[in-house]
Write a structure and sequence with these properties.
- The protein has 137 residues and is an alpha+beta fold.
- The protein is 37% helix and 20% strand.
- The protein has two helices and five strands.
- α1 runs antiparallel to α2.
- The protein is elongated, with a radius of gyration of 28 Å.
- 7% of the residues are buried.
Length: 137
Protein backbone atom coordinates (compact mmCIF):
# COMPACT_ATOMS: atom_id res chain seq x y z
CA UNK A 1 0.00 0.00 0.00
CA UNK A 2 1.56 3.32 -1.07
CA UNK A 3 1.84 6.17 1.41
CA UNK A 4 0.95 9.67 0.24
CA UNK A 5 3.75 12.19 0.68
CA UNK A 6 3.35 14.89 3.30
CA UNK A 7 3.13 18.34 1.81
CA UNK A 8 5.16 21.15 3.28
CA UNK A 9 3.27 23.56 5.49
CA UNK A 10 2.41 26.97 4.15
CA UNK A 11 4.89 29.76 4.85
CA UNK A 12 4.30 31.31 8.25
CA UNK A 13 3.55 28.09 10.06
CA UNK A 14 0.47 25.96 10.24
CA UNK A 15 -1.90 28.72 9.20
CA UNK A 16 -1.72 30.73 5.97
CA UNK A 17 -2.91 33.68 8.03
CA UNK A 18 -2.77 34.28 11.74
CA UNK A 19 -5.81 32.95 13.65
CA UNK A 20 -8.39 35.68 14.17
CA UNK A 21 -9.66 34.41 17.54
CA UNK A 22 -8.84 36.76 20.38
CA UNK A 23 -8.52 35.04 23.77
CA UNK A 24 -11.22 35.99 26.24
CA UNK A 25 -9.85 37.77 29.28
CA UNK A 26 -12.92 37.59 31.50
CA UNK A 27 -15.18 34.74 32.43
CA UNK A 28 -18.85 35.32 31.80
CA UNK A 29 -21.97 33.17 32.01
CA UNK A 30 -21.41 31.81 28.50
CA UNK A 31 -17.96 30.47 29.43
CA UNK A 32 -19.31 29.08 32.70
CA UNK A 33 -22.18 27.28 30.95
CA UNK A 34 -19.82 25.90 28.29
CA UNK A 35 -17.60 24.46 31.02
CA UNK A 36 -20.58 22.96 32.85
CA UNK A 37 -21.99 21.36 29.67
CA UNK A 38 -18.57 20.00 28.71
CA UNK A 39 -18.17 18.56 32.21
CA UNK A 40 -21.59 16.89 31.94
CA UNK A 41 -20.82 15.50 28.47
CA UNK A 42 -17.56 13.92 29.58
CA UNK A 43 -18.63 12.57 32.94
CA UNK A 44 -18.28 8.90 33.72
CA UNK A 45 -21.72 7.24 33.30
CA UNK A 46 -20.85 4.83 36.08
CA UNK A 47 -20.10 7.67 38.45
CA UNK A 48 -22.17 10.72 37.42
CA UNK A 49 -21.64 14.19 38.83
CA UNK A 50 -23.03 14.72 42.30
CA UNK A 51 -26.35 16.59 42.16
CA UNK A 52 -25.25 18.87 45.00
CA UNK A 53 -22.10 19.82 43.07
CA UNK A 54 -24.16 20.66 39.98
CA UNK A 55 -26.60 22.77 42.02
CA UNK A 56 -23.62 24.52 43.65
CA UNK A 57 -22.13 25.35 40.26
CA UNK A 58 -25.48 26.64 38.97
CA UNK A 59 -25.79 28.81 42.08
CA UNK A 60 -22.30 30.19 41.47
CA UNK A 61 -23.34 31.06 37.91
CA UNK A 62 -26.41 32.93 39.14
CA UNK A 63 -24.33 34.80 41.74
CA UNK A 64 -21.72 35.74 39.13
CA UNK A 65 -24.40 37.10 36.78
CA UNK A 66 -25.95 39.15 39.58
CA UNK A 67 -22.60 40.58 40.66
CA UNK A 68 -21.90 41.55 37.05
CA UNK A 69 -25.25 43.35 36.89
CA UNK A 70 -24.56 45.15 40.17
CA UNK A 71 -21.14 46.22 38.95
CA UNK A 72 -22.61 47.66 35.74
CA UNK A 73 -25.33 49.48 37.71
CA UNK A 74 -22.71 50.91 40.08
CA UNK A 75 -20.64 52.23 37.18
CA UNK A 76 -23.74 53.78 35.61
CA UNK A 77 -24.74 55.42 38.90
CA UNK A 78 -21.23 56.82 39.34
CA UNK A 79 -21.32 58.25 35.82
CA UNK A 80 -24.67 59.93 36.48
CA UNK A 81 -23.37 61.32 39.77
CA UNK A 82 -20.34 62.83 37.98
CA UNK A 83 -22.62 64.43 35.38
CA UNK A 84 -24.83 65.96 38.06
CA UNK A 85 -21.80 67.27 39.97
CA UNK A 86 -20.35 68.81 36.80
CA UNK A 87 -23.66 70.45 35.87
CA UNK A 88 -23.96 71.91 39.38
CA UNK A 89 -20.69 73.80 38.83
CA UNK A 90 -22.08 75.98 36.03
CA UNK A 91 -22.01 79.63 37.08
CA UNK A 92 -19.76 78.95 40.07
CA UNK A 93 -16.18 80.13 40.58
CA UNK A 94 -13.93 77.06 40.56
CA UNK A 95 -10.22 76.43 40.86
CA UNK A 96 -7.96 73.86 39.21
CA UNK A 97 -4.25 73.23 38.77
CA UNK A 98 -2.64 73.55 35.34
CA UNK A 99 -0.08 71.02 34.13
CA UNK A 100 2.77 73.24 35.36
CA UNK A 101 1.23 73.28 38.86
CA UNK A 102 -0.09 76.84 38.87
CA UNK A 103 -3.52 77.32 40.42
CA UNK A 104 -6.16 78.89 38.14
CA UNK A 105 -9.55 80.27 39.17
CA UNK A 106 -12.47 81.05 36.87
CA UNK A 107 -16.19 80.79 36.30
CA UNK A 108 -17.51 77.44 35.01
CA UNK A 109 -19.59 78.33 31.96
CA UNK A 110 -20.52 74.97 30.40
CA UNK A 111 -20.12 71.21 30.68
CA UNK A 112 -19.39 68.57 28.04
CA UNK A 113 -20.41 64.94 28.58
CA UNK A 114 -18.60 63.50 25.54
CA UNK A 115 -16.03 61.33 27.35
CA UNK A 116 -16.10 59.09 30.38
CA UNK A 117 -15.26 62.07 32.63
CA UNK A 118 -17.31 65.28 32.16
CA UNK A 119 -15.29 68.31 31.04
CA UNK A 120 -16.01 71.76 32.48
CA UNK A 121 -15.31 74.94 30.51
CA UNK A 122 -13.56 77.43 32.80
CA UNK A 123 -12.70 80.65 30.99
CA UNK A 124 -10.93 79.57 27.79
CA UNK A 125 -9.83 76.19 29.20
CA UNK A 126 -11.71 72.90 29.20
CA UNK A 127 -10.91 71.00 32.39
CA UNK A 128 -11.80 67.40 33.29
CA UNK A 129 -14.08 67.30 36.33
CA UNK A 130 -11.58 65.25 38.34
CA UNK A 131 -8.96 68.03 38.01
CA UNK A 132 -11.15 70.70 39.59
CA UNK A 133 -9.83 71.15 43.09
CA UNK A 134 -12.49 73.36 44.63
CA UNK A 135 -15.28 75.90 44.51
CA UNK A 136 -14.26 79.41 45.47
CA UNK A 137 -16.79 81.63 47.24
Amino acid sequence: MPIDPVTAPAPGGMYATAPSRVPQQQMDSKVFMTLLVTQLQHQDPGSPMDTNAMIGQTTQLAMMERLTELSAQGEEAFGLQMRAAAAALIGKKVSYAKEDGTEVTGIASSVSFEGAVPRVKVGDATVPLDQISGIVS
